[in-house]
Amino acid sequence: MNKKVIVQVVQHLQPGGIETMALDLMHELSDRADVHILSLEGTASNAIAHWPRLDAKKDNLHFFDKAPGINPQLIWRLHLKMRELNATSVHSHHIGPLFYGGFAAKLAQVESHVHTEHDAWHLNTNDNARLERWLIRTLRPTLVADCDAVAEDLLFHFPQSNPAIILNGIDTNRFVPVSEAKKREQRERLNLPIEGLIIGCAARLETVKGHKYLLHAISKTDDTILALAGDGSLRPSLQKLATKLGIAHRVHFLGAMDDVVPFYQSLDLFCLPSLNEGLPLSPLEAQSCGVPVIITDVGGCRSIVCPRSGCLTPPADSEALRQSILCFQYANQAPTPRQFVLRTGNLEKTARAYFNLLHPPVAEEC
């Protein structure tokens, strides 16, 4: 049997949840299919410079350097690449890739098209909702939501859509717990304090991630240390806020990290104070490393918190974050959340579900 060729279409290849999921699926499906990623925006050199992890997969990454605005010619270019690769299926992520990748797949006569929505809050804009409704009716992809909450939003906007639900998964063989000695070693490697309670957050430093509420919460706790992995446009203002709150000495800005495993392994607690989310990967990654989480109850976050060790808080609520941190700080040791992730957020299970949608098993004749 000829090997399947899966083409994933993404908006860009910058560090983020959707992009990490696309790369993880490429790796996990490599024994069953030749997987390529078409990035609408950016160039290979710039993407690899900002995300060195891409270099190992560069032969299967294709960049189209799309400029802002609508570019119909891009559909033709994508279709030619799909034909060159002999694509047997297309998997688009988010609304822009659905538009360009979906029409390109039609031109290239690729019959199998799966589209995943990783969040739905962009559909609160009427123009986006109308466009996606038209795209779903016209292109007729197999629609997937990455959690129950996104599926509910899709059904609200598109009552006839009937999305499948495939939870995001992470590589539990890569994100693993470590001993206390190894934890101290990882802290030393990252120039973090060896002793003390370290709370971590891995997210882009942008408004939607809600870092300012976490900084305010930390300012009202004693001796806790905050480690922030990630970069973004708000870094200068967040650094100024930490100074204003008198906690600059307790807040460590680590910048963008190509390998976040040592970061999670250095933590006692993980906190993601987002204002909007689909189904974020970072809480799964932290919990797979045995680290309890506190995250805001937005999007699909409720479905990825271990009920025995983690907790949910309302968004934009510094006091609720503070109370949750104090509960963890003064409670007995929380049970490990790793088994929860092995059951609910395993990448192998996610990849198998996607492969079966992209290339449904053919029943053998008697």
UniProtKB/TrEMBL annotation:
InterPro entries: Glyco_trans_1 (IPR001296), Glyco_trans_4-like_N (IPR028098)
Single GO MF descriptor: glycosyltransferase activity
Pfam families: Glyco_transf_4, Glycos_transf_1
Glycosyltransferase subfamily 4-like N-terminal domain ranges (all copies): 15-174
Domain of life: Bacteria
Gene3D superfamilies: Glycogen Phosphorylase B
GO BP term (any one): carbohydrate derivative metabolic process
Protein name: Glycosyltransferase
Species the sequence originates in: Pontibacterium sinense
